[in-house]
Amino acid sequence: MFSGWRPHLGQQAFLASGAPVRVLACGRRWGKTEVIAAEIARALLGDAPREVLLVAPSQEQAMLGFERALEFLHRVGAHPTVRRTPAPTLTLGKGKLWARSAARGGMLLRGRKAHLIIVDEAAYVPEQVVHEVLTPMLADTGGKLALVSTPRGKNYFYRLYQQGQDDGVHIWSLRSPSWHNPLLSPTVLQMQASLMTQRQFQIEYGAQFLDAAGQVFRTEWVDRALLLHLQPEGLTVAGVDWARSHDYTALAILHGSREGATLLDIRRWQGLSWTEQVEVVARRIQMYAATRVLCDRTGVGDPLLEALQTAGVPHAEGVAFTQAFKQSLIENLTLMLEGARLQLLPDPDLLHELYHFEATPTARGARLQAAQGVHDDLVIALALAAWTLPRAAHSAVRTSGAQRTP
Ligand SMILES: Nc1ncnc2c1ncn2[C@@H]1O[C@H](COP(=O)(O)OP(=O)(O)OP(=O)(O)O)[C@@H](O)[C@H]1O
Ligand SMILES: [Mg+2]
Predict the structure, then answer these.
(1) Cβ count within 10 A of residue 26
(2) Ligand 1 atom at shortest distance from the alpha carbon of 29
(3) 219-394 sits in which CATH class?
(4) Which ligand 1 atom lies nearest to the CA of residue 178?
(5) Residues near ligand 1 (Cβ within 6 A)
(6) Over the stretch 294-321, which tens digit does the pLDDT of each residue have?
(7) 9-204 belongs to CATH 3.40.50.300
(8) 201, 192 in Cβ contact below 8 A?
(9) pTM
(10) What is the tens place of the pLDDT at every residue in 136-194?
(11) Is the Cβ–Cβ distance between 123 and 155 less than 8 Å?
(12) CA-to-CA distance for 277 and 275, rounded, in angstroms?
């Protein structure tokens, strides 16, 4: 198809299917982005006018597929017009490709039409974006949809996969573990297996749709939290988890109370000096004017907290983690998600961390943490922020002392 490029068997099957909807569930390093890029290039090189849309959970992920598709086009001597800012767009004759992030509910996509829509890491894109934004874009053109991803529990991606297994005509589906990619070295696979829990390896490399066992935050709660439209009253608060050695520094900003809250911002940074970490965190907290700030001071002690207080967040407080405190912290977050009292953002890193956060039974209760090889910095920052929320919206506006009951 493209000189020198040979799709492996799974990739061939995906490319050969003419079904209107294709669902491809496979392990990491399987060659998902590669086959997506090949499919896009093939569509753009065809004779018919082609509006192709590549969607991914984040802009960085969308950009990966975009650049890979461009490489395929260059390989066959095509020279499309490329624009990377403000958003990646490529034009080749009558064909056009745009690569977009599904963040913010895919608002920027509404009202357009497309002949082919491909979603990379689809299990990390909210269901609502696929059904309410993307599918209608294909209605006028009779276009095709392809969803490609590593699994994330039994969510909508799993249900479509199942429908494909039952139907096979309108929806084609395939599940294929990473080792079906003959180019993936067995040594790399073995190394990954040794770095992860068995459950995680089964999901990430075995492409299995696993839920429950050991999972603290159920996938359906998390997915529902992405669909909520809360307009809570209360305070704006922040939770901070500082990086230790190879970790990320993570910050979560919430608004509301424990009765109902929305996530305004969540992010993580890696490879920054202590001074830089304090600076970026202080700047964001000031931007949102968070009135309560709670930092994990386990292992990093008071100097960081003092630096943050000096950097313009004088009201920042610190807490040292004990097993019991961590238990309460995670329990509170679990209850808020279970009770549909927390509205989340579709941040792929956060969804990944929530999905892989596990409780392992031990002699002295449960050990709560991310599966080995996965970070939990965002979950901890989120849990700290949720803990810091006022218990009820009205308690947020109480002034000390003279509280009169009506
Ligand atoms: N048919 C192929 N021919 C040559 N190289 C391939 C082929 N398919 C995949 N690869 C290579 O294998 C590696 C993994 O591919 P790719 O990034 O597409 O996988 P992925 O499933 O999207 O991975 P991730 O889970 O990390 O997103 C890349 O280096 C890619 O170039
Ligand atoms: Mg990929």
Answers:
(1) 26
(2) 23
(3) alpha beta
(4) 21
(5) 5-8, 11, 28-34, 183
(6) 999 887 778 899 999 999 999 999 999 8
(7) yes
(8) yes
(9) 0.84
(10) 999 999 999 999 999 998 999 999 999 999 987 899 999 999 999 999 999 989 988 88
(11) yes
(12) 5
